[in-house]
Write a structure and sequence with these properties.
DNA polymerase III alpha subunit; mainly alpha; T_SNARE_dom; 86 residues
Length: 86
Amino acid sequence: MNSVNESLNSVNESLNSINESLNSINESLNSINESLNSINESLNSINESLNSINESLNSINEPNGTLVNPKGLCYLVPSLQAGNVF
């Protein structure tokens, strides 16, 4: 009986060790998840900024919904430098 008890204690210690390892892995995964969430928020912010820039460029390139020039920015910058207002 004593031998069985010792074996069960050994199994319990092993399971406790496994549990601690799994807890450590879980904490690491939670940390990684938080980092990925932060990166995702940053990328969303960048995407919103790019969408805003894109909308501005679209409004310059397509006044009244009509495509003025398919080359867009090739003509926009020199025209702005020449003082033209759109």
